[in-house]
Amino acid sequence: MTVTTDDFDFSELTAERLRKLDMVRGQGVDPYPAQVERSHTAAEAAAAYIGWEAELAADGPTPAEAAHSAPLVAVGGRLMSLRPHGKMTFATIQDGSGTLQLAFRKDHIGDAAYAWLQEVFDRGDFIGARGRLFRTRMGEITVQVDEYRMLAKSLNPLPEKWHGLKDTEARYRQRYLDLLTNPDARQVFLTRSGIVRSMRRFLDGRGFIEVETPILQPLYGGASARPFKTFYNALGQDMYLRIADELYLKRLIIGGLDKVYEIGKDFRNEGLDTTHNPEFTQMECYWAYADYTDMMRLTEDMVASIAQDVTGATSISFQGETIELAPPWRRLSLRDGILAQTGIDIYVHTDLDSLRAAIRERGLQVSPKPTWGQLVDELLGEYLQPTLIQPTFVIDYPTEISPLAKRKADDPRLTERFEVFIGARETGNAFSELNDPLDQRERFVAQAALRAAGDEETQPLDEDFILAMMHGMPPTGGLGLGIDRLSMLLTDRTSIREVILFPQLRTLR
RNA sequence: GAGUCCCUAGCUCAAUGGCAGAGCAGUGGCCUUUUAAGCCAACGGUUCAGGGUUCGAAUCCCUGGGGACUCACCA
Question: What are phi and psi for residue A312, nearest 5 degrees?
Fold first, then answer.
């Protein structure tokens, strides 16, 4: 039933809570006080009681005999369950540290205080309580409440306590309800936070410094993708949200910051599916005087170290597969990988027509692509990638699809580049960075030609970046790792929306 | 952008062409160690929206909205 006032439409349940709110205010009590008396979190209270029990054991008296000297705590949290039993009521509160049980006895707190609990509190409200800890007959550590107060009234009901919030759309649109009622969801985001923390610790420990580069850029670059475009009024010019951090981080390498990294959002104006969100998080790091083999060692050491930190092991379970992340990881050339899965040698079929013919000849199902490089990438995605469950460095990519990577000394058609695949998902991308400004300019020009041929995701010529490189850039290794993808891997989730707190959804009309 | 499936009470779910229902939550009552507390009672619906078919539509059809998955683009 919907109740309508001049200002709101709300449910009958909300109307009931508003009635209680009015009742509290009518009694001269502030339902939203600013000050909170709180000595312990839920977890700290439990730990304090266990510590007290341990001390007692040495002295002699049982906890029941010594109850009068049990720890006195002031706790606060959200009321998740209220279980009245006549003259005694049990409640469970939840704070960021966990849950704790409260016991209210009518003969202990008095008739009026006991009645007030039933009259004005609902599941979802915040409550603060003081009292001594004890264990119930069932052994649960519980606060014997001496006094309590309302910390904040909630006006909308929480989802059902047993099943939690199931509806996917509601879980994404109202993530706070998901976090409150689904412990799994909460754990995913704690793990994700742990991954980023562990990554920072690892890179800091290796002497990398964390930097911040522009998200709002006059020209996008550093990856092959369509950008989000916007307009900056003060300068009267078009701006882009970055699609990668790469070109700015390399400017820092040129500036003599030899080991830099950035963890931040990139934005790509592309599709939306279980592995893509238009706004996603990437770690990029650049290491002067290193090459792509150094980056491979860095990558496998870092990912294994992160997995150890957040899951306690380097061997993880993902979608029923056991994946071993301990180094060293398999290294497979792109050519050998595609040859093994399709029988096509991309070193033989080195132009678009020849490669198309070979694909047709074998009856392979791949979508048509406008350039040779994109077609090679398509073969990788269709036939090789699904086989790459265990962590694999696929190395030596065609120059045409790697415009920022250094050519291999013995074969200018290829670059010193690798992509990381784990659980059949692309998780990282790295190369020995191109530091020859003249070659870099040529690559940009070649990109323009590919764009003319129909490739919409080529990289624009960035004169300011070339200017920087003209001043001299040291040999450098660079790596990009997808934080969302890594989080999916380490939390065993197949949808990127499960590891992004607020995934992109269509706005409700 | 295309295809398939989904949308019912605050939440989790029933009802498949024939009286829209249950559990939880909420309301009233009983209950001093429960923890998915229990018992009794009453209450709670624009079945996503709009249109159509039909004696009759939550159910079938069409249009629109939102979501999930698959495909295409992408990391």
Answer: 85, 5
Q: How many domains does chain A have?
A: 2
The number of beta carbons lying within 10 Å of the beta carbon of residue A507 is: 5
Question: How far, in Å, are A191, A212, A301 from residue A309 at the CA level?
Answer: 10, 25, 12
CB < 7 Å to strand B — which of 40-69 in chain A?
A: none
Point out the nucleotide closest to A425 (alpha carbon to C1′): B75
Q: Per DSSP, what are the bridge partners of residue A143?
A: A102, A133
For the cut 50, the answer to whether the pLDDT of residue A6 exceeds it is no
C-beta within 7 A of nucleic chain B, residues 234-263 of A: none
**pLDDT tens string A12-49:** 899 999 999 999 999 999 999 999 999 999 999 999 99
Dihedral sign of CA atoms A467, A468, A472, A473 in order: negative
- pLDDT tens per residue, range A425-442: 999 999 999 999 999 999
> Which DSSP string do the residues of A292-317 spell out, in sequence order?
HHHHHHHHHHHHHHHHHHHHSSSEEE
pLDDT tens string A228-255 = 999 999 999 999 999 999 999 999 999 9
Q: Who among residues 218-237 of A has its Cβ near strand B, under 7 Å?
A: 223-225
- Strand B, nucleotides < 7 Å from a protein CB: these are 1, 9-13, 23-27, 30-38, 44-46, 65-75
Nucleic strand B near CB of residue A123 (< 7 Å): yes
Residues A149 and A282 in one domain: no
What residue numbers bound the domain in which A40 lies? 2-158
Q: CA of A10 vs C1' of B55, distance in Å?
A: 38
Q: What are phi and psi of A421, to 5 degrees?
A: -120, 130
End-to-end CA distance of chain A: 23
What is the spatial distance, in angstroms and rounded to an integer, between the CA atom of A197 and the C1' atom of B32? Answer: 48
Same domain, A200 and A276: yes
CATH number of the domain at A17, please.
2.40.50.140
Using CB atoms within 10 Å of the CB of residue A191, give its burial: 0 to 12 exposed, 13 to 18 middle, 19+ buried: middle
User: ipTM score here?
Assistant: 0.91
The answer to whether A81 CB is within 7 Å of strand B is: yes
